[in-house]
Write a structure and sequence with these properties.
Largest sheet: 7 strands, antiparallel
Low-confidence stretches: none
Number of strands: 16
Shape: globular
Oligomer: single chain
Distance between the termini: 24 Å
Structural class: alpha/beta
Strand order of the largest sheet: 6-1-2-5-4-3-7
Helix content: 25-40%
């Protein structure tokens, strides 16, 4: 079991967990994730490793309560244990000296974008962070981003904080005033697709961290199959990061909605 060392609120229905996991903390690299099980009869859920401390032996996770398992997990407190956790899984982010990199995070996707931004900054890149949320309470990891990025641009849909508008509008502004050599995005599928279409005309290499349905994290179940450049890939072992200009976002969106009715029914009978 993995003991929870700290729990705190990041946003409404979003919790930050610092969890004891010394072996994972030593091996984890930016972009990788773990699969967690909270209950003996429960589902296995993939969660991005938002941060880690090899010396302290812990990793950080950000969890949004959207279904039964995530709701149960967000009720846990310091000193409680997660039943089991497997990782680090997935391919790490490509970290090298690109020049100027724009890292775009939408909602909980900022928890995915942050460790990548931190690693890119550590490699000597100028990192511009654009992070979005519905309103101010949903803009997360801003202080962490400011600690490692050259520029940080919070955006809100309702204008309650930072830039009033879409992250893609702010991205356009950034690219208009400075050369951007690479863009990395993480967040809702429509947002990542919009980022890809924003950078495509400029020919800026763009990477998307995909969030398909995932079960085992080893490529055996096929649930996380995505289409990239017309070829089937498995997000859990080949990704989760792929060339955003090659991703079939429409197919990804349809597959992610496949179990919505079942999930709604299951949530009702599992208080």
């Amino acid at each position: 079991m993995n003991t929870i060392l700290e729990v705190r609120a990041l946003a409404p229905d979003v919790a930050y967990f610092r969890v004891e996991a010394p072996k994972i903390a030593k091996r984890r690299r930016a972009g990788q994730f773990v699969i967690v099980r909270v209950e003996a009869e429960g589902e296995r859920i993939p969660l991005t490793i938002a941060d880690s401390d090899p010396d302290g032996g812990w990793i950080a996770l950000a969890v949004q309560a959207v279904g039964h398992t995530t709701t149960v997990m967000n009720r846990l407190r310091e000193g409680d244990d997660l039943l089991d956790m497997v990782g680090p899984l997935g391919q790490p982010s490509e970290i090298e000296l690109f020049g100027t990199v724009a890292v775009v995070g939408g909602g909980l996707g900022t928890a995915i974008a942050y460790p990548v931004a931190k690693a890119l900054a550590g490699a000597g890149n100028d990192v511009v962070s654009i992070i979005g949320g519905r309103s101010r309470p949903y803009v997360i990891f801003e202080a962490d981003m400011r600690a490692c990025c050259d520029e940080v641009h919070p955006c809100t849909d309702d204008g309650s904080y930072g830039f009033h508008g879409l992250v893609t509008t702010k991205l356009e502004e950034v690219m208009a005033r400075r050369t951007v050599d690479r863009v990395i995005c993480a967040g809702p599928i429509p947002m990542m697709r919009a980022v890809a279409e924003t950078t495509r005309p400029r020919g800026v290499p763009t990477i998307a961290s995909l969030n398909p349905i995932m079960v085992d994290g080893t490529g055996m179940c096929g649930g996380c199959r995505v289409s990239v450049g017309g070829e089937s890939r498995f997000a859990c072992v080949d990704g989760p990061e792929f060339d955003a200009h090659q991703v079939d976002f429409e197919l990804l969106s349809r597959r992610n909605k496949a179990y919505l009715d079942w999930e709604a029914e299951h949530k009702q009978v599992q208080p």
